[in-house]
Design goal:
single chain, seven-stranded parallel beta sheet, 1037 residues, 47% helix, 39 helices, alpha/beta
Amino acid sequence: MSHSTPSDQAARDKAVDPTRSCIVQAPAGSGKTTLLVQRYLHLLCVAERPEEILAITFTRKAAAEMKQRILMALEKDDAVAAAVRKRDQDANWGIRQNPNRLKVQTIDSFAMELATRLPRQESVAGLKLLDSADHLYEGACRALFEQLSSDQPSAPFIAEFLAFVHNNATNATALLTQMLARRDQWLDFNNAFAIENAGSPEQIKGLLEQALADLREQVLYAAERPLSDEHKRTIQLIYAAVSSEEPEASVHSALAAVAPLLLTGKTLRKRIDKRAHPAFADKALRDRVKALLGALAEIDITEHFQNIKHLPPSTVDPAQSELLATVSLCLSLCAVALKDIFIEEGAIDFTELQIRATSGLRDEFGPTDLALYFDYRIHHLLVDEFQDTSRSQLHFFELLIEGWQADDSNTVFAVGDPMQSIYRFRDADVAIFAQCRDQGLGALPLEPLELVANFRSSNELVEWNNVLFHQLLPDHSVPRLGAVRFSAAEAAATAASVGDVVCRAYPHLDAELTGILAHIKALQDNNTSIGVLCRSRSHLQPLLGALTAADLNWRSTDIDLLADLPVIQDLMNLYRILKDPEHRLSWFSILRSPLVGLRLVQLQRLETVRDFVVELPGFATEIPALERLLAAVTWAQRHAFEFPLREVIEGLWLRLGGMDAYDDIALDHAMHWFDLLEELGSDAYEESALERAVERLFANSASDARIEVMTIHKAKGLEFDHVIVPFLHRGTRHDEAPLMLWQTDGRHLLVGAKSDPIHEWLNYEDKIRAANERKRLLYVACTRARNSLWLSYQSDDPDKASGMAEWIKDLAEYVHDTNNTASATHNPKAPLLTALSEDYHWTAPSMVTPTVGTDDVLPTDDLIGSRFEVALGHLVHKALAWLATTQTNAADLLPNRLESWSAQLDVDPADLPGLIQQAQQHLECVSSSQYGQWLLSDHESAQCEWAISGLDHQGQARNAIIDRYFVADQQRWIIDYKTATPNHESLSKEQFLQEQRERYGSQLERYRQLVTQLHFDDPLPIRAALYFTGLGELHEL
């Protein structure tokens, strides 16, 4: 597909100008990432240092892709890339050798870098970053309720709050927990309410009534704007008739009273009589009203009248302000309790990270030293996906660039597409894009630019989308309600298009599945990519079964939760058995699982068993599989506190035949679970922490199938040759409205607690925003397609409240029912429960314990590798950390300290002499090695067993322990000790070293990323290496 020069080329040229600050509206397929990359390259041409340019993206994938695209663009044969390469060489930047100098990050990773530089009491350095903190939120709620039994002044307020929720502590906890997760959005203004206005409902009442007056003015003005003078005069006359007021009453007063009378349900009245109002008994008045209704039907007024109808009263009842004061105070107390829990746990959540990073940029005296430091370091800010910015993130950006002016050399570049704003559930506010387009960011004006060229889709698809979404999206934006005006695209492709748009309405599920499968089979012949997109994961389940039954290979992205898979449930049950040997449900689940595979009749024989470890041996004669199970569990219990948890459970799983009981896909999922167990470290011993971690993971397929199945949200930023969007009749669940809702325009704050009229109004507006976002969600789905688009729904099961079928029903072809031949295609037979044979025997892998300087082979007790090996590693690591920390000669260690440490390992006493001997040999090898002496020297910033936290390249919270870290010769070094040595019978030394590099390369890269985040402003090269203590050799990765 070829492209001509787009009609928006002038806007694109302005967008990459490194002297301009601008905000760019870039619709789907317009080449937004390419534009960002070009902007970044042009900035590199003028920057003093690469670190002056900060690019913020809102997804981990986008950050990785953008950095890769920049590096690839540097290699191109064009003038800009050549200029950057020359500047890189002249300034000795070394970008291609050290790409971490390119500051392309998610907002979370940048906040982490900033927050590590805060003063000690607020710094996040060394704290655990939690992906989910619901359990801590619940702890904060418990701390709040515990104050009820005290004589603290807060107790009456808490009691009043509980009375408000009908003394239902569970419901109260759910409402407060929901608010705590979003506290970055409300904490500042809520504290003002709670602290400044607590005990002063009259003051709250005055503030709210000011906000209500402003709201009424906005809503009534919006309704007045489309009315003609004649319409206004008629409305004033109607108002005089129904209220006994003079016709000279203001238009706004008349509208407020008359608009609800002209509505029935959600539409304008078709008939008018005295049932609407007694005054309409007058024929002359009725005739005027009918004429007005006819005229109003010609203009877009119904939504405005609906808004007027739902407006809350202009005055605030004292009970409202008292309730709001109570709720505000309880929320503030909960937030304080949560901070205390963070301190106790040594952990924070992502919201706390953002709060601390933001507060670190400004205090009551103005910009902080940290803000001034970043103001000196950063001169150019680029923000991708700006349409999905939240209010708290906007505030963060404003503080970051505080003081930047139009006439200085600092620039801001924001790019996004309001028509693709679909992340309200993450507090994204599409109104921010329009606000910054009109008012700038902080004190810095932004030049608005608009792109129109679509390089992705065929001419037919672009035109079809233009027609549909011109009807669905308004001509004018209403930022407060999340309504985004439609902006037409222009197809940049000059080649002939392939495919078309198909809209189908089916009578039921079987018919829709049959149609989809036939469509996919026809497309697969073309060897092209197919994206199947739905609003919700649950919507896709019938289709996944149908695809599998039809032998169509597919891969999913974040569809199946890892926790729902049988192999993971089996592993969790093994974990629970180790934690609690009396956990009956877990025992029976394992007995029925493929690992043991008892039949129902055998399970019934065990129905009376209470103490499984004690009683099961009595059944082993008649049920041989029990002997293998008990032997494996006994082994695991013996080593439960001796080795890391992963090694214990993986050893138990292997002994039960895990590698033979499941298919290859399930084994991949099992390895994912074991990796998680290792990453959690000591946290994995807490069952609730492990369960929370597992519940956040998905079982993504690694298949190379061309059919990709995902939600529309996950498809954002992707494209496919062919897109299928089925089940458009289905809606999604409606979440309960939060405890508190709020809205601010920068001048007034409108806040309502649950059930009061203000809250009801704000919830009404929120539903309008949700409906507007659903239209944008469909836009995102339709614009993923390059060549063809399929939309379908079932006409017998519409969800008119939240479905999308209503919007395409006039375009759809109705498919009549056939003989229902597909009824079995999406209901394949459930797989038979398989199990290992009763006489299954696990054979441990053949391994020789590595030795150093001796031909003796020490006894082993195979775990996954060698029990002895693990103990040796623990002992040598402990000794090296002590040597490096105390700077003591190795001779001082021998033999007393080694004997003391080895005794703590709970190793078989008969093995201790051999263990100590080998540890001594490793340490002697280290001390006689030039590299070993250098590693243990007293270096700058040296650390041993350094615990570090941060975000990996995917934005996931990661915790790590680095064996040795230091700075030497202006380079940062990360060292990972390895006690393994080559077994020359199976591997040569070179093969062994290569195998170790491949095995630990990703781990060291993760360490490198975490260290980079901590020292993001200091571009010292970071080097990572494995040091083999038994060889005395350092091997850099």
